[in-house]
Design brief:
- The complex is a heterodimer of chains A (about 120) and B (about 110).
- With about 120 residues, chain A is mainly beta.
- Helices cover about 0% and strands about 50% of the residues of chain A.
- Chain A contains no helices and eleven strands.
- The relative contact order of chain A is 0.31.
- Chain B has about 110 residues and is mainly beta.
- In chain B, the strands form two sheets. In chain B, strands 1, 3, 4, 7, 8 and 9 form a six-stranded mixed sheet that branches. Chain B has a three-stranded antiparallel sheet with strand order 2-6-5, with no helix packed on it.
- In chain B, a hairpin with a 2-residue loop joins strand 5 and strand 6.
- Chain B is globular.
- The chains are: A mainly beta (about 120), B mainly beta (about 110).
- Chains A and B meet through strand 5 and strand 10 of A and strand 3, strand 7 and strand 8 of B.
Amino acid sequence: QVQLVQSGSELKKPGASVKVSCKASGYTLTSHPMNWVRQAPGQGLEWMGWINTNTGNPAYAQGFRGRFVLSLDTSVNTAYLQISSLKAEDTGMYYCVRDFTGKDAFDIWGQGTMVTVSS
Amino acid sequence: QSALTQPPSASGSPGQSVTISCTGTSSDVGGYNSVSWFQQHPGKAPKLMIYEVNKRPSGVPDRFAGSKSGNTASLTVSGLQAEDDADYYCSSFTSNAGGNTVFGGGTKLTVL
């Protein structure tokens, strides 16, 4: 069964860092690009960026440059999202998403990881 | 980058048809056949319903159909059923500086 399984919810203080994992099963991570999407509480979907799973090269949406880092560990079929210097406005559900055609066909979504930033 | 424009809400009675629009520009919706539609129920991850404007993934009922004209894409849901009550989001590839993909703001579809 093809699925993406993400790490559990996180509660962090402002200024801290967090690393969210996304483990692919049922397929090889390097066969499809991986995207990340954020959904703030009660809000819509926001595309954060994607990582070329063959080269490891990431690309970020304008609002996600600087504190957000996408990476891979192909030996364990896992993608990662790291956020540093956390702010309250980073609070939200973070999804990893497979693009099965390479043309924004986001077919497999992780279950989401809730990151809460609060003092 | 700016989100694609969707109506905030839509509604229809069981058995009826409803169409949700998604308006962009020639730099996104109008310029590429990479429009997708997603369904999201409360507390759940989004689900791909349509990709590449009008293609349905395996398992998605043929009551869901996608189309595009100019800078506007549309999702039509025919034969509305109670389980279609959900939020719907469109997305498109974009050539605008700042990113590869842009989402619409979402439409809450209510089955009356």
